[in-house]
Amino acid sequence: MKLSRSVALALAGTIAIVIALLAWQSLARLEPAPAVTYTLLDGRKLTSDDLRGKVVLVNFWATSCVTCVKEMPQIAATHEKFRARGYETIAVAMSYDPPAFVSRFAETRQLPFAVAIDNTGEIAQRFGDVRLTPTTFLINQRGEIVKRYVGEPDFAALHALVDKLLTRG
Measuring CA to CA, which residue among 65, 39, 84 is closest to residue 136? Predict the structure, then answer.
């Protein structure tokens, strides 16, 4: 009788561990990035499908956002550091940002990456109704959101994560 009680307890413990592992795995799954079409300042269209196979940083920003303006040189430097390895950056200006301001900002700063204007707010909506700027998403080569930053990222940690994703392929 003692043996069967011990076996039952061991079996119950094993089942509990398996359930916990399955629950953890379901929580650890990465969320797919939404399918969107970016309209760039030069009028070109860029889709999520066009970016498959690359590590992509999508940065929601505004010219009126002090932190956004402050972090933009670091975003540009990150882009320059990793672009040859399959890294892309898209800066998405919020719908309330006047297009002339966005265009002037990108031109005077000579931003080395794609800049899009989210005129309708649809892109921000699809990324989980982004309202705070800056909000930045890092997307892996499979189109999954790996990290979401609200506010300025820790750029050393971001660089380490980008390098890891690019190395992994």
Answer: 65
Can you tell me the distance from the alpha carbon of 99 to that of 129, in angstroms, rounded to the nearest whole number?
20
- Over 50: is that where the pLDDT of 26 sits? no
Cα end-to-end span (Å), the chain: 55
Does the pLDDT value for residue 63 go beyond 80?
Answer: yes
The neighbouring-strand residues paired with 32 are 144
Classified as helix, coil or strand, 70 is helix
> Please, which residues have CB within 8 angstroms of residue 156's CB and are 6 or more apart in sequence?
none
Burial of 149 per CB tally in 10 Å (0-12, 13-18, 19+): middle
Backbone CA torsion sign across 113, 116, 122, 128: positive
Cis peptide before 98 (omega within 30 of 0): no
d(CA 116, CA 85): 22
Residue whose C-alpha is closest to residue 94's, from 52, 127, 46: 127
pTM of the model: 0.83
Q: What residues contact 131, with CB distance under 8 A and at least 6 apart? A: 124
Taking alpha carbons only, the member of 53, 32, 33, 24 closest to residue 168 is: 53
Structure tokens at 122: 């649809």
